[in-house]
Amino acid sequence: MTATIDVFPLGNADTSRLTLADGQRILFDFADMGRSDGSDIEFDLEKAIKDDLGSAPYKLPVVCITHVDDDHCHGFGDVFWLQHAKKYQDVDRIKIEELWVPAAAILEEGLTRDSRLVREEAKYRLLEGKGIRVFSSPKILEDWLATKGLTLASRKNCIVNAGQTIPGFSTDGSEKVEFFVHCPLSWVQDDDDEINRNEHSVVVQATFVEGSRKTRALLGSDVNSDTLTQIVKSTIRHGNEDRLEWDLLKLFHHCSYKALNVNDRGMDKTSPVAEVKWLVEDQGKDRSIIVSSSKKIPTKGSKEDDKQPPHRQASAYYRSVQNKRSGDFVVSMDKPKKPAKISITAFGVSLALSSPAVAGSGSTSKPVRSG
User: Fold this and answer.
1) Domain spans of the chain?
2) How far is CA 213 from CA 344, 346, 369, in A?
3) Beta bridge partners of 100
4) 3-351 fold
5) Is residue 359 predicted with pLDDT exceeding 70?
6) What is the predicted pLDDT for the residue at 35?
7) Considering all CA atoms of the chain, what is the largest pairwise distance in Å, rounded to the nearest integer?
8) Phi, psi (5° rounding) for residue 87?
9) pLDDT in tens, 14-49
């Protein structure tokens, strides 16, 4: 079957579903924002996920919570079967075979509600030594394990670091995909004085194979330009430039200018720092797709044109880059009742006809790249 990626319309919140060639479903984040008080989001994420899975008992091979901001895990405790407490084990809940989290999700204190539940579930699974992948191994994780009478070596099978691929997935297997980890960077966490959710979040490149073709998707979370600069420098230093190539970019931090240049939004267009410019302009391919999981891009001078993303200045930069290479720039909330669906074909990436697309971008009805 054709692999697909669905980016759901949840406002400034993230949930993406990967459907692999063998039918496996992988969920990156879960933010059912229609459940939140005062929300104007109409999309029912729980229903969409369950309808796709079929009838109960529901099960997902992987759920990755890239970091524990509410807009990446809202509703987690209402929807999923959690192993750490029986009160979250109703028959109608979705079971998670393997939970992926950054180390920061286990180590951060003072969490509440769904963020806390992600932490407690991840802790339980790591202590059990199964059903969990923890991204990065900073010294504070080693110290925490020591308080439980454990070592990093004893939980090596549960931990994956930047610069490694995630076990259990291969382009040679029936799933026809591998995941290369870019973030979190353990050495950065060791240098930081405290947990920084956004900068210690999960960023991966997924490489799909269909026929003789490799198609690459860079799945960003909420990192800023400083962290992206570190990722780029580290990747180049290790000779892994191909690991930052992309046909699809799931945009960083809801089209925030801070992912391009944390210090300068710009008046009408953000100018990226050098490393991010290279990542966006040189590593993105002709007729590629950028998806912004965000609200609609504001117009200049409107009440939405404020400090919060999405930022029109960042959008102007991304759109100008995509126009030069006949690519697409897609905003998830431009069609608030349908996910943006991207197909991974033997010809490259293509947008489904029902997906939202920004006016003036490339065609949404044909394979986007064939060479």
Assistant:
1) 3-351
2) 10, 6, 11
3) 64, 133
4) Metallo-beta-lactamase; Chain A (3.60.15)
5) no
6) 83
7) 58
8) -65, -15
9) 999 999 999 999 999 999 999 877 788 999 999 999
SS3 of 144-213: the string is HHHHCCCCCHHHHHHEECCCCECCCCCCCCCCCEEEEEEECCHHHHHHCCCCCCCCCCCEEEEEEEECCE
Q: Residue 139's Cα: distance from chain center in Å?
A: 25
The residue count for the chain? 371
Can you count the helices (H) and strands (E) in the chain? 10, 16
Distance CA 307, CA 297 (A): 13
Q: Do the beta carbons of residue 177 and residue 20 sit within 8 Å?
A: yes
pLDDT score of 370 more than 50 = no
The tokens 């050495």 sit on which residue? 187
Contacts of 358 (CB under 8 A, 6+ apart): 297, 319, 328, 329, 330, 331, 334
Distance between CA 36 and CA 42 in Å, rounded?
11
Residue 141 near residue 90, CB atoms below 8 Å: no
DSSP 280: I
Q: What's at 252, amino acid-wise?
A: F
Q: Model-level pTM greater than 0.90?
A: yes
Is residue 247 a contact partner of residue 285, using CB atoms and an 8 Å limit? yes
pLDDT in tens, 52-99: 999 989 999 999 999 999 999 999 999 999 999 999 999 999 999 999
The answer to whether the CB of 328 falls within 8 A of the CB of 289 is yes
User: CA 20, CA 33: separation in Å to the nearest integer?
Assistant: 25
What is the radius of gyration, based on Cα positions, of the chain?
A: 19
**Which pLDDT value is given to residue 369?**
40
Buried/exposed 131-161: b ≥16 CB within 10 Å, e otherwise: bbbbbbbbebbbebbeeeeeeeeebeebbbb
Give the three-class secondary structure for 162: coil
The residue type at 142: E
Rounded to an integer, what distance in angstroms lies between the CA atom of residue 317 and that of residue 269?
A: 6
